[in-house]
Amino acid sequence: MNYGFFRVASVSPSLSVADCNFNSKQIIELVKKAQDKKIKLLVFPELSICAYTCADLFTQKTLQEECYIVLKNICEETKNCNILFCVGLPVELDSERFNCAAFVFKGKVLALIPKSFIPNYSEFYESRWFASFSENTVKQISLCKGLEDIPFGTDIFIQDENDSSIKISAELCEDLWVPFSPSTRHALNGATIITNLSASNEVAGKAEYRRILVTGHSAKTVSAYIYANASHDESSTDMIFSGHSIIAANGAIKAESGLFENTQEFLIADIDLEKLTQDRIKSTTFSRSTSFAKSEYKTIFVSGLQQEHFADNIDEQLYEKIDLHPFVPSDIQKRKERCFSIIEMQSEGLAKRLRHIHAQGAVIGLSGGLDSTLALLVCARAFDKCNISREKIFSITMPAFGTTDRTFNNACLLAKEMGTTLKEINIKDAVIQHFKDIGQDINTHDVTYENCQARERTQVLMDFANKCNGIVIGTGDLSELALGWCTYNGDQMSMYGVNSSIPKTLVRHLVSWFADEAFEKGNKNLSDVLNDILATPVSPELLPPSEGKISQKTEEIVGPYELHDFFLYYVLRWGFSPRKIYFLAQKAFLGKEDKATKTIYTKEIILKWLKNFYKRFFSQQFKRSCMPDGAKVGTVNLSPRGDWRMPSDASVQIWIKEIEKC
């Protein structure tokens, strides 16, 4: 099983201008090395057989014939290599010369793809030697003896006969830079992988523009884009080439070379084709766009492109970074920017609701934990946006049987530092009376014991909101909703949930952002209390503490949130199978320590919590079906009015069956 991955690479080999024999030796050597690295598709730069900068030498018959001879030799020398690769060469046809990409596989030239757009501006005068190809028809042409009946045209796919997700097309250099690239049409007709054989010279600022072009185009076409650029061995008579190559997939850079680096080094990426196909299916506007670009493509089927080596060897190198925390950018600066953006969206969403209902106040159940802390911080920001005094935010702390001094004190300190109105309502007596009413033994610490407290707190908040003409701000986060780790008609319910699309792993960073902001503004007291809340174990505090400390630690009961957030991301965002998610989780977590429980992740532990995730996710949908309003701020959300509509009585059996086979 390959889990949808496909290994691609580009390379800018050592080059001698017009020395086709030298260049072919470099190409052959690199193809054989690529085979050893289990690369399935290798892309060389534009006109790589002879060099892009041959200029008027392109008019010489000797050079043209040598290119054909060398291409034939390349085929012969690589016939035992199970790798598809594309090289560049000039091709003469019907009294015209075309700049072409040749796809070679197992000793045969499968197709010749001509360049569509020939640059003839500034330092480029390519139309002096090459013609533009604008037809959509595919011809059969012969170059020389041994290179006969080769499909020639732009509308050609190379596809694995056993895997339709491996559908490869090509364009050349300038084709990417025009308003409507040939690859746009290719993608809309089904191509998932686009190769670009390029010779893009270097001038100040061009590298960044090139990067934007490649990433943006891969995003727009929802494809993998392999951009192989000519190296510094090209002639420097008029231009400088840097070998700046890029591999991108759906807007994300998977691999990128530096400028003027050593040649002969592969730029490798493992492309997750399942991600691409899933995103195309999910984005209905992509499929609807295909009607604007329908064309009759010639598909050349080959056998043996499928990747198989990921199946059983978890130690096999994967050229794809699997983030432990997919909801949280690993780059510190990007993380700060993401946190600010999300906080602004949360607060703007709540501000809109406050203005719409002419709210005079808001009520938050403040526990001293992460979620209610973030809700209060966001609420205060929304009140500032609406020019409403923060004193009209009622921070209600409701100590009961499981409340510890640490969380109680932090809740009180936080409420005061934020300038809100603090109110303490001890619910012990009310819960004890309720226990008597329903016949619950106070010494029986079961689910009834816990949920009675949660529902009593919600009743207090709702009634107090009526009293102050305000709304109850929900504190529950996305991870809790996914696992159903909330009490139905208890903390599951509110009038507006500001954290409803924030996963637990991200909640922590958002609170940390507020702590840093407070410190920078000179409010050390607020920064200190936020940092202590960050250091407090996650707990609903519904069971009595042990020696004054939290006894009920959530992640010891339901599993590590970082693991569940990982599962959640790949289940909701990509719709991956349990088996693939298990594979990815092993790549990301195996051997690492869970900071919350101090356990080392093993295959067995990961599998245990994956099974737990699916069981909880399916069985707890009824709580999500009636969740309150709350704005979506990320790519994953569980709102029944938005991203996720699921029957509450759906069976989990086929997912569990697959997990048990792992």
SSE map:
Blueprint (H helix, E strand, L loop, with lengths): L4 E6 L9 H17 L4 E3 L17 H17 L6 E10 L2 E10 L2 E7 L24 E3 L8 E3 L3 E5 L2 E10 L9 H7 L4 E6 L7 H15 L3 E6 L16 E4 L2 E5 L10 E6 H10 L1 H6 L8 E5 L29 H26 L3 E5 L4 H16 L7 E5 L7 H13 L3 E4 L3 H11 L8 H21 L2 E5 L3 H6 L12 E2 L6 H17 L3 H11 L19 H4 L3 H12 L5 H12 L13 H17 L1 H4 L28 H8 L2
Parallel strand pairs: 1-2, 2-3, 8-15, 9-10, 10-11, 16-17, 16-19, 17-18, 19-20
Antiparallel strand pairs: 1-14, 3-4, 4-5, 6-7, 8-9, 11-12, 12-13
Question: Care to describe what's here?
Answer:
The chain is an alpha/beta fold and 662 residues long. Helix content is 38%, strand content 17%. It has 20 helices and 20 strands. The strands form 4 sheets. It has a 7-stranded mixed sheet with strand order 13-12-11-10-9-8-15. A 6-stranded mixed sheet has the order 5-4-3-2-1-14. Strands 18-17-16-19-20 form a 5-stranded parallel sheet, with helices on both faces. The model has no long low-confidence stretch (mean pLDDT 94).
Helix content: 25-40%
Describe the largest sheet.
7 strands, mixed
Please state the CA-atom Rg, rounded to the nearest Å.
30 Å
- C-alpha geometry: elongated
Beta strand %: 15-25%
Distance between the termini: 12 Å
Taking all residues together, what is the mean pLDDT? 94
Number of strands: 20
Class computed from helices, strands and strand pairing: alpha/beta
Query: How many helices does DSSP assign?
Result: 20
Low-confidence stretches: none
Strand order of the largest sheet: 13-12-11-10-9-8-15
